[in-house]
Design goal:
The protein is α/β, with parallel strands linked by helices. It is about 30% helix and about 20% strand. The chain starts with a strand and ends in an 8-residue tail after the last strand. Residues about 235-238 have low confidence and may be disordered. The structure holds S-adenosylmethionine. S-adenosylmethionine binds near residues 101, 105, 131, 206 and 225.
Length: about 240
């Protein structure tokens, strides 16, 4: 019988936030896997789980998804990764593929899941705690309350179109992939008349260098940075 692929959300950083279900599956699978863009680059999700799961007897597999600008190189690489995964599943191995936060929130895992399913294999997603949920909890702010809504948007490559739509239509906005775009986010908030106190930066949540606090123009933010904007906090209602 073919094995099964599990996509496991491991939470944003603190291994204590791994769910019991995730731990049970990680303990039971012979193969722990993660996608990489370069061989040997490692995985933050794997670094999280190995603090609480004994991986010494397990096989750890990297699956290469090259981001080469050449479509044919990318496609060949993806096909090789899929073939290797299918071979392991055909051998009856269960694979636990770990992913940061939740698998449904901007994760490569969901592409892999769809592809493996389309090839006739069984898959299962184990949800994890998304980074912005842990960040909001640490900051002591509700993500939404009463009849409010919440939008989750990325701000990458100078594109603020989604952020603008979100600020126009929602009381609360979570901005992901924010690390290079802090000045742009601040400018967009100014444009909408949202005071700076309305933003809380949650960076490296549950990891070394954790920062939970206001936007600080002098601070350098790393990749694991998210901003929670509450339009009605610290200012007039708009
Ligand atoms: C590719 S997405 C992965 C999101 C992840 N699946 C989740 O559920 O949070 C990467 C973005 O998630 C956010 N992120 C992930 N881990 C984080 C952490 N520990 N602290 C703050 N933000 C984090 C950042 O906005 C980062 O740029």
């Amino acid at each position: 019988m073919a094995g099964k692929l599990y996509g496991i959300g491991v939470g944003p950083g603190d291994p204590g936030l791994l769910t019991l279900r995730a731990k049970e599956i990680l303990d039971g699978c012979g193969i722990i896997a993660y996608p990489v863009r370069k061989l040997g680059e490692g995985s933050t999700a794997f670094d999280i789980i190995k603090q609480v799961v004994d991986v010494s007897e397990k096989s750890v597999e990297e699956f290469l998804f090259d981001m080469n600008p050449d479509d044919s190189v990318r496609e060949r690489c993806r096909e090789e990764a899929m073939e290797k995964m299918c071979m392991l599943l055909d051998n009856g191995e269960d694979i636990a593929m770990v992913t940061l936060g939740d698998a449904g929130v901007y994760s490569t895992y969901m592409y892999i899941d769809a592809e493996i399913r389309s090839r006739g294999y069984e898959t299962e997603v184990i949800p994890g705690i998304p980074s912005f949920c842990h960040g909001a909890a640490l900051a002591g702010v509700p993500l939404m309350i009463g009849n409010e809504g919440l939008a989750v948007v990325p701000v990458a490559k100078e594109n603020t179109a989604l952020l603008r739509d979100a600020l126009r239509n929602f009381d609360n906005v979570v901005v992901m992939k924010a690390f290079k775009s802090m000045p742009l986010i601040a400018e967009t908030m100014d444009e909408f008349g949202i005071p700076r106190e309305g933003a809380t930066v949650v960076s490296n949540v549950g990891m070394e260098g954790e920062y939970i606090g206001p936007m600080d123009d002098d601070r350098k933010y790393g990749y694991f940075t998210t901003v929670i904007i509450k339009k009605n906090k610290g200012g007039r209602e708009i």
